[in-house]
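User: Show me a protein chain along with its predicted structure.
Assistant: Here is one chain, sequence first, then structure tokens.
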Amino acid sequence: MTPDRAALYSAYVSRDPRFDGVFFIGVTSTGIYCRPVCTAKTPRLANCRFFDRAEAAEKASFRPCLRCRPELAPGSAPVDDAGRIAALIIHRIEEAVLSGGADLESIAEGFELSARQLRRVVRSELGVSPMELVLTRRLLLAKQLLSSTALPITEVAFASGFASLRRFNDAFLGRYGMPPGRLRRQSAEATASLGSITLQLGYRPPYDWPAMMAFLGARALRGVELVEADGYRRVVALGGHQGWIHVRHSPERRALLVELSRSLTPALPALLGRLRSLFDLGARPDLIGEHLSRDPRLASAVAASPGLRVPGAFDGFELAVRAVLGQQVSVKAATTLAGRFVEAFGERLDAPAPGLTHLGPTAARVASARAEELTALGVTSTRARSIVALAAEVAGGRLRLEPGAHAQETIAQLVALPGIGPWTAHYIAMRALRSTDAFPKEDLVIRTRLGGVSAARAEEISHPWRPWRSYATLHLWQRPSE
């Protein structure tokens, strides 16, 4: 037994998700090959063969497992459902906090599960019950607010998602063995400001902040968001609360500094969750870079920008509309159209700031529009119908453009809408759904930088990049033309 085989078998036995897509296991006694996270009975080491690609296992005459579906991207097989549901539950819990707290039963109904099944999924994936998860996340946010802001303790309690100051005090004392006021007294970092607070969101370095700003700046929704030398700004409406945010990079702290208006503190859990998605703060650049660098086509690009992230979306509907407007036109032309769209369908602010004049258009508002209202802005009739149809699906709850949603199902829903093709659907999945494996193979830049290949050939070339094809896409887009 060589050290390599021992390490691979150990990762397989532990079902370590970090190795999902890195290697595959062929079982000689069954003729089937699996992913390292497969929940089937673990075979003996003597019956295992290890492959770095699914194609290599197939060439060796192994058949794909019907449970973990190694021929699909991680996240798309039945074995991944629990993890995907757990991730979505976290997202929904954060969003529910700002609308009065949807109870567990209503969240479960959204997944077509019973509350008991939902509890089982969360405990299996995260090791805690849903309510323990909610409490922990609220307390961690409260600790950050107490130590880094001068918000009154009552405001900290409500901003963290607690329904009353008494419940907050009891929970804090029970978990940390001291009242929240003591942590405030011990903190030397809290800063006072009448109109805003500033929080930190950490990341795992490196982080290519200039690339993130360049990407978002070229595609900013004019009037709603603004990218300047000192960071990213936008106006926000969440759960009936309106305000502004300003995000800056602090490389010495390995964090982003998020300044926000006090008016947004009741929506903090959802706001911070959306910012983590927008700036891809959960990425593991070490694992992603190591995996993609194996292909000589990507090695130099990864080396040049090891901290490249996939920009997400603060609001999935906003991003989807911007993507449709950008079909078959230049980035600059799409930005012009998007600005007109905001002026026509966004809510104008009572006290606009320089460059920030409107709240983003909502799906409900656009769904009630006629296609002719969009064509009057210079949008083609085909794209006008696409946007109205898209808005109707989102407003009706039939299409969810949020992190953790099933990528393949959502892509199929998008392509079924009039005027939305595979490129746009994959682009939306990559950014709004946070799919790590979306791949717009039809993209001309990608095909050119792979040697002028066809879309079908680009798909073949990309298979070894799974499950990180979204990151490979960004590296190809960023790579200078040769």
